[in-house]
Write a structure and sequence with these properties.
Aspartate Aminotransferase, domain 1, Aspartate Aminotransferase, domain 2, globular, binds ligand C6P, alpha/beta
Length: about 425
C-alpha cells in the first residue's frame, strides 16, 4: 500500500517564520463568531493542531486502522507499527534512554494517577511524607491527597513568594527520613513560573527521594531531556502540544516501572491468566490495559515530530519575546495587576483588570475575538495565595503573533473604558 508521507513544517534555520507556520493551522484562519479575526491565546488549556497532524490522523483512519498487538493480519501489524513508532517519537522527544520507559496515557492527569496507584500505593505507608509545591495543578495535588487519606501519610507543601517563585530553602527543610516521594511541577499553569526543576530533583535525590515531574505546561515550551534532569517520572498531555485530546505519555525509569504494580487490569497487560494467578506483561505494556486510543497516540507522535522539526529553542525564543512584549504592554495600560511575576516564566500572562471579575473580562475579550481562559485554572491554592478568586490568563504558543498581543491589549483597554 502506498501512502503519502506527512509533510514537515516549512521552517528555515534562524528565527521562526510565524506566518509560514500559521499556514499549517487551519483553525487560525477562522473568523471568530463575533466577526473578528480569532486571536487564540488559550494554549495552556489546549493548543491547536497543524494540518500535518490532522493528515496523519486521517491517514490512520483511512488506511491503517485495526486493533494493535492482537492480530497476525497485515492491518493489525501496520497499526501496531504506527503505534509503537509513536512511542519512539515520544522517547526521542524526551530523550529517554529506552523505548520501554514510555507509557502511553490519556494525558498528564492519568500519568500522575498511574504513579500514585502503581508506585505510591505500593511503597508509601502510614506516617510517610509526600512533598508537593504550592504551584501544583489539582491533578498533581488530589491524587496525593487521596493516597495520604488511604494510607495515613502526610502531604507537605513547598511555599511560594509574592512573585510566584518557589522557596527552595524551605523546600530543602521539608525533607525528613519519612519523606518517600516528591511530585513537582516544571511550569505553573496559573502563573507561568518555571521551577528550578533540576535543582529540586538533585535535592530530593540527595535524600533518596524519587521525583515525579508534572510537565504538562513545560513540554510545549522548553526542551526536556529526562536523562539530563534525572527525574524518576515525567508526565505530560498531548493536546497541549498540538496533539489530540486523549493522548499523553508518562516517562518512568525502567527500574522503577519494573517494581511498580499495574494501575489497571485487563487485556494486553498480561502474559498469562488462570483463575488462580495472572502474570503481568513486561513494561510498558504492563501499564497499558485494554484497547488504547490508538489514533490519538499516533497523532501525538506526529505532533512531537512536527514540534521537533521547528525546534524548541526557536519556539522558546519566540514565545519569550511575545511574553515580554505582552507584559510590557499590559503593564503600560495601568490598573492591571499581573499575577505571577517570577523571573523565569513560560508563555503565561495571568492578570486582573481593576476590580472587574475575570469572567466579565473573558467574555468582553471574546467579543473582540480574543480567546483567553478565565477561572481558577484548576490551581485553587495558587488563587488563594494571591487572594483572588480567579484570573484572566493569556497563554501563548509558537504560532501566536505580536499583532495578537496588540489585539489582547486593545481589548483590555476596552474593558477598562467600559468599567471606568
Ligand atoms: N491544565 C489549563 O488550562 P490534562 O487535563 O490531564 O490534560 O492536564 C492536567 C494538567 C496537569 N498539570 C498542569 C500543570 C496542567 O496545566 C494541566 C492542565 C489546563 O491550565 C486545563 S485545567
Amino acid at each position: 500500500m502506498s501512502v503519502t508521507p506527512i509533510r514537515q513544517p516549512a521552517v528555515d534555520a534562524g528565527a521562526l517564520d510565524v506566518e509560514r507556520i500559521r499556514a499549517d493551522f487551519p483553525i487560525l484562519r477562522n473568523v471568530h463568531p463575533h466577526g473578528k479575526t480569532l486571536a487564540f491565546l488559550d494554549n495552556a488549556a489546549s493548543s491547536q493542531m497543524p494540518q500535518q497532524v490532522i493528515d496523519r490522523l486521517v491517514r490512520y483512519q483511512t488506511h491503517e486502522h485495526a486493533n494493535i498487538h492482537r492480530g497476525v493480519h497485515t492491518l493489525s501489524a501496520i497499526a501496531t507499527d504506527a503505534y509503537e513508532g509513536a512511542r519512539r517519537s515520544v522517547q526521542r522527544f524526551l530523550n529517554a534512554k529506552e523505548e520501554r520507559e514510555i507509557i502511553f496515557t490519556t494525558g498528564c492527569t492519568e500519568g500522575v494517577n498511574l504513579v500514585m496507584h502503581g508506585y505510591g500505593r505500593k511503597f508509601i505507608g502510614a506516617g510517610d511524607e509526600i512533598i508537593i509545591t504550592h504551584l501544583e495543578h489539582h491533578s498533581n495535588i488530589v491524587p496525593w491527597q487521596m493516597l495520604c487519606e488511604e494510607k495515613g501519610a502526610k502531604l507537605k507543601v513547598v511555599p511560594i513568594d509574592d512573585r510566584g517563585e518557589l522557596l527552595v530553602d524551605d523546600y530543602e527543610k521539608l525533607f525528613t527520613e519519612r519523606t518517600k516521594f516528591a511530585a513537582l511541577t516544571h511550569v505553573s499553569n496559573a502563573l507561568g513560573t518555571v521551577t528550578p526543576i533540576r535543582r529540586l530533583i538533585d535535592i530530593a535525590h540527595s535524600h533518596g527521594v524519587p521525583v515525579l515531574v508534572d510537565g504538562a505546561q513545560a513540554v510545549p515550551h522548553i526542551a526536556v531531556d529526562v536523562q539530563a534532569l534525572d527525574c524518576d517520572f515525567y508526565a505530560f498531555s498531548g493536546h497541549k502540544i498540538c496533539g489530540p485530546t486523549g493522548s499523553g505519555a508518562l516517562y518512568g525509569k525502567a527500574a522503577l516501572l519494573e517494581k511498580m504494580q499495574p494501575f489497571k487490569g485487563g487485556g494486553d497487560m498480561i502474559l498469562s491468566v488462570t483463575f488462580e494467578k495472572t502474570t503481568y506483561n513486561t513494561i510498558p505494556h504492563k501499564f497499558e490495559a485494554g484497547t488504547p486510543p490508538i489514533a490519538a497516540m499516533i497523532g501525538l507522535g506526529a505532533a512531537l515530530d512536527y514540534v521537533s522539526a521547528i525546534g524548541l529553542e526557536r519556539i522558546a525564543a519566540h514565545e519569550h519575546a511575545l511574553l515580554e512584549y505582552a507584559t510590557e504592554q499590559v503593564t503600560a495600560l495601568g490598573g492591571v495587576r499581573i499575577i505571577g511575576t517570577a523571573r523565569e516564566k513560560a508563555a503565561v500572562l495571568s492578570f486582573y483588570v481593576g476590580d472587574v471579575h475575570p469572567h466579565d473580562v473573558g467574555t468582553l475579550l471574546d467579543e473582540e475575538g480574543v480567546a483567553v481562559r478565565t477561572g481558577h485554572h484548576c490551581a485553587q491554592p495558587v488563587m488563594q495565595r494571591f487572594g483572588v478568586p480567579a484570573t484572566a490568563r493569556a497563554s501563548f504558543a509558537f504560532y501566536n503573533t505580536f499583532a495578537e498581543v496588540d489585539a489582547l491589549v486593545a481589548a483590555i483597554r476596552k474593558v477598562q473604558k467600559l468599567f471606568a
